[in-house]
Design a protein that fits this description.
FAD/NAD(P)-binding domain; D-Amino Acid Oxidase, Chain A, domain 2; 11 helices; binds flavin-adenine dinucleotide; monooxygenase activity; monooxygenase; FAD binding
């Protein structure tokens, strides 16, 4: 093995998955994560347990039972990956560590953090999400993901609070003239699937609040800066959402939305997209949302990130690639077309849904 150390920037789902696949081939991994708690979207993911287990070696008995095939909360998947990474002696996680820039020469690559430390490794992997700092080094002429023209409101409600007359058996996909809603039954926060202890998650696509995103600084031109957190959502917007939910969506989905609105437990996530032209520059590579940002409507951002993690480990384990740059070039060759195709597959939906709302 010619490549013994890796620094991964970002310890969310992609960073953790990549750390696990690289550690399995004997690479010592340092994960640099800017936050101390990466709990972020509250969204649900299609996370097939068998694929997760095969690629990362994760013990999927750590995941809660699902109520719809393969649908897990972001938090449950993150917690299971984090526990597996914590248990692996080849993985070191440093939280509260923000990477400001990355660089490289013939001998190594390095990440410079906000506390002025420099972390050297054979390779650096950018798993730092849709606003990636590492992407600025890899693709300096196209550094930013661009706003797709709509946001997704996200919430989760307890069955015990909404007491629905009918419990949904599966994921629901509802469309009206202006809105699209994805609803999904989930286990309770403690993993319980017993009646009365479950939850309903919802994701509501909305192209009519882009001015609010601009006014609150979530958008800067076409670049997404951050999500719209509950305290920043004006009362008038909550009231308007409640009116529309009541008018457009049937029970139990409308009940779940109205409950989340009552508790002000709603996040607005502006959706961005990024079609990559490259994934690699020398000893530095991108995975996950740093590499490719599809609309969540594709339902495949997570599994695409899993395949990135697998392909990267395969390339770095291949002894024929005598230097890190050659291994990473093989990774790019393996993944670039798939990543581009995924993002492009969602762009038709995004353009039709945004309908000039940009
Ligand atoms: C609303 C929504 C719904 C979705 N639904 C689905 C779905 O149904 N199915 C699906 O497959 N995918 C879905 N996705 C996509 C999926 O969530 C992502 O593809 C997946 O989580 C991979 O994320 P990531 O780890 O690459 O990036 P992120 O989750 O963005 O993580 C990036 C990490 O890097 C850290 N970081 C950033 N910058 C720095 C820095 N400078 N220094 C150190 N650390 C840094 C951040 O703190 C964060 O922890 C959805 C996404 C959204 C927003």
């Amino acid at each position: 093995m010619h490549h013994r150390t890796a620094v991964i920037v970002g310890a969310s789902l992609s960073g953790l998955m990549t750390a696990l696949t690289l550690a399995r081939i004997g690479i010592h991994v340092t994960l640099l994560e800017r936050s101390d708690d990466t709990g972020r979207t509250g969204a649900a993911l299609h996370a097939p347990g068998d694929l997760l287990q095969r690629i990362t070696g994760l013990d999927t008995s750590r995941l809660p039972r699902t109520l719809s095939p393969g649908i897990q909360t972001w938090f449950a998947v993150h917690a299971a990956l984090r526990a597996a990474a914590d248990a692996d002696p080849r993985i070191e996680l440093r939280q509260n560590t923000t990477v400001c820039r990355v660089a490289q020469d013939e001998q190594s690559a390095w990440a410079v953090t906000a506390d002025n430390r420099t972390h050297h490794a054979d390779v650096i992997i950018g798993a730092d999400g849709h606003r990636s700092v590492v992407r600025r080094h890899v693709i300096p002429n196209k550094p930013d993901a661009t706003f797709s023209g709509y946001l997704i409101w996200i919430g989760i409600a307890d069955e015990s609070a909404i007491r629905p007359a009918h419990w949904p058996r599966n994921v629901a996909f509802l469309t009206s003239r202006d809105d699209t809603l994805l609803g999904y039954p989930l286990p309770g926060a403690d993993g319980s699937t017993a009646a009365g202890a479950r939850r309903i998650g919802w994701a509501w696509y909305d192209a009519s609040n882009n001015d609010l995103l601009r006014a609150t600084g979530c958008l800067d031109g076409t670049v997404v800066r951050h999500s719209l957190l509950a305290p920043s959502i004006p009362d008038a917007t909550y009231a308007e959402l409640a009116r529309r939910a009541h008018a457009q969506f049937p029970s139990p989905w409308s009940d779940a939305i109205l409950d989340s609105i009552d508790r002000h437990a709603v996040i607005g996530t502006p959706i961005a997209e990024y079609v990559p032209d490259r994934l690699v520059n020398g000893r530095i590579a991108l995975v996950g949302d740093a590499a490719h940002v599809p609309t969540p409507m594709t339902g495949s951002g997570f599994s695409e990130s899993l395949h990135d993690a697998e392909a990267l480990a395969t390339a770095l384990a291949t002894t024929a690639h005598t230097n890190p740059s050659a291994a990473l070039a093989a990774y790019e060759k393996d993944r670039l077309v798939s990543a581009r195709t995924l993002v492009q597959s969602g762009q038709g939906f995004s353009r039709a849904f945004a309908r000039g709302a940009l």
